[in-house]
Amino acid sequence: MKGVKTVWFCNNCGAESSKWVGRCPSCGEWNTMTEEKVKEKKGRSTTGLTGRADISTPVPVSAIETADEPRIKMPSEELNRVLGGGLVPGSIILIGGEPGIGKSTLVLQNILSIKSRTILYVSGEESARQIKMRADRIGRPSDNVFIVCETSLQNIEEHIEKIQPGLLIVDSIQTIASDDLESVAGSVSQVRECASRLLKYAKESSIPVILIGHITKDGNLAGPKVLEHIVDAVLHFEGDGQHIYRLLRAIKNRFGSTSELGIYEMCQRGLREVRNPSEMLLTHTDEELSGVAVGVTMEGIRSFLIEVQALVSTAAYGTPQRSVNGFDSKRMNMLLAVLEKRAGFKLAAKDVFLNIAGGLKVNDPAIDLAVISAILSSNIDMPIPHSTCITGEVGLSGEIRPVGRIEQRIREAEKLGMDTILIPRGNLKGVDTSSYNIRIIEIAKVEEALRTLFA
Length: 455
Ligand code: TYD
Ligand code: MG
Hints:
Bound molecules: thymidine-5'-diphosphate, magnesium ion
Number of strands: 21
Radius of gyration: 26 Å
Shape: elongated
Strand content: 25-35%
Largest sheet: 9 strands, mixed
Mean pLDDT: 86
């Protein structure tokens, strides 16, 4: 076809090449170049921030006027927290997650409760009736939310022109395509083109835009990294399909911190915010079970208590099994080695299964000591008292290392009615402990912790 050329795009970084290459010259990944047909551009590129090709004048920072526009509060407090206090006018944010995790539900549920502005929800995935059925289930459909099923970028722009929304949602960025390009929706060039056109719209009109994006099997946002560079904030909605909890994390945020975490629960009628995660993550039984230890972990700046469950049994077949859910398996092996070497427990011929309750994944090393305690509790079949919780990182020589934000962790344990907490020795240096209403036991070595727990 005339005016159409073939180019190769890297799936990983979005780099462009005029011929096929085995290895991307830009990011060095192998076998990532895919062929796409694009229309040849005439004249110079106009995809700048303002879309105009004419030259702009540099101005001193101090001379730039900032309209102190308030953030647009979303109905969900958890979402506001992750966004850093609400949506910034003119910003473009991307919500990514695996299919079926609840991205559309999250966004729909929020916009249904906004009454103050007109909202345009562009869906390339579901029909208007499907969306209505879902909306009926999760909220009260309102008159200010407009739904359009459209996949052509040009048509979407016409709808925007007509409706003049105060908030635009595109579900999902991988389903829409510009007529200017030959390639199919979801390809690198389409995703890039559509996102930058919407970015231009957001910046010029000061209307916030929310894009929904898919995630590939290996956990990357489908489409190139380029998409992450274009948008102002990238939020990941994640969780385990088998569990009801969903976590919303900021991966990138130009207007706030990335250490915030939002927790939701998927219910019959949509998503429910979880304000106090600890209460849900602990099992409330009167019976004391062996193999269970309660640890205090931090996600971003929130602390909560989690249950670590372990099962240790004699290996039935030759090689002992090690199975871990929600915790790093290499780290567990290291902790087992520490137990063996420093505390003298023979676990080499035992199967060890470890699970973090609630389907959460914990990276916080402060739960090391809880992991060790749970494993040992199962091994010797002695329960740890319900009201005891444990925090501390374990070093290779069996020493208990200090953890961050210890005061916050103790407060959380106290709030949840724990009466004893094991913490690393020296972690509370200079802190006035008289205000705590919980027994604090300072521990320096693994053996000491075990003696305290199973004496
Ligand atoms: P959805 O928002 O369609 O996911 P995504 O847009 O990320 O692909 O969520 C779909 C899942 O959520 C579906 O498997 C069913 C579940 N769900 C509920 O459990 N309760 C509800 O009220 C709704 C609306 C969905
Ligand atoms: Mg969806």
